[in-house]
Amino acid sequence: MKCPYCHHVDTQVIDTRISEEGDSIRRRRRCASCDKRFTTYERIELAMPVIVKKNGSRSEYESSKLRASLMLALRKRPVSAEAVDTAIQHIEEKLLASGEREIISGQLGELVMRELKRLDKIAYIRFASVYKSFEDVSEFVEAIQEIKKK
């Protein structure tokens, strides 16, 4: 680790502590050249896969877009913010666990529908109607019957 003061490459770790959340390590370092001290943080770097849309374009995964989609489907439904956060966490964990660098938007949509089905059946139907481009009432009836079966 380079010293931020003199840019010497020989620094010594004098103290290591894990953060309260347990998601980073704080290291106190001392430069062997100028004897100044500084702090560094070590964190896990997780890269979410890139989303490949139907038209072939690619975009970075954005948690805010996922939250907005869920909130739109869940509008005026009795679902807590904690439940939405948990659903987002489940989806993100599945994306990371896939190990893929790219994921088709349809796969993300399926993950969202699975979580919405678990959270709220009405929100699931709302989302499915847009996601699957329902064109007539019979498609709504089929989706509702599918939910009733389970």
TrEMBL record:
Highest taxon of the lineage: Bacteria
Zn finger regions (unnamed) covering which residues? 3-34
Q: Which PROSITE patterns did the record assign?
A: ATP_CONE
Give all residue intervals belonging to the ATP-cone domain. 49-139
**What does the record give as cofactor?**
Zn(2+)
Query: Cofactor comment in the record?
Result: Binds 1 zinc ion.
Quote the InterPro entries the UniProt record gives.
ATP-cone_dom, NrdR-like_N, RNR_NrdR-like
Q: Which UniProt keywords apply?
A: ATP-binding, DNA-binding, Metal-binding, Nucleotide-binding, Repressor, Transcription, Transcription regulation, Zinc, Zinc-finger
Which Pfam families does this UniProt record tie to the protein? ATP-cone (PF03477), Zn_ribbon_NrdR (PF22811)
Give the family from UniProt: Belongs to the NrdR family.
Functional description taken from the UniProt entry:
Negatively regulates transcription of bacterial ribonucleotide reductase nrd genes and operons by binding to NrdR-boxes.
Which HAMAP family does the record match to this protein?
NrdR
What is the protein's given name?
Answer: Transcriptional repressor NrdR
Species annotation: Undibacterium amnicola
